[in-house]
Predict the 3D structure of the following.
Amino acid sequence: MSIVIVGGHDRMVCTYKDICKQYKCKVKVFVYMPAKFKSMVGKPDVLILFTNTVAHKMVITALKAVENEDTIVERSHSSSACALKEILSTHCGIA
């Protein structure tokens, strides 16, 4: 399963990747908005938006990138490891 995480803390990127690895998921993490962000999002199975720590423009761009796909969009106000584990356990099963 492929996961794209938009937002979060830059110091937590390695933690996010480790957690997704435990759930056997491929992950891309975008804490800052790079150039050509819309094309970099791709076609993930689940798009996770950490809404407290992300720019509104970045959320809009990510949603536009997956609007015609069969992507599940999860929004979480918290960008903690526990919030990510809860979302992944819902969609990827128990690690």
Q: What stands out?
A: The chain has four helices and four strands. The CA atoms of residues 63 and 91 lie 19 Å apart. The chain has a mean pLDDT of 93. The radius of gyration is 12 Å.
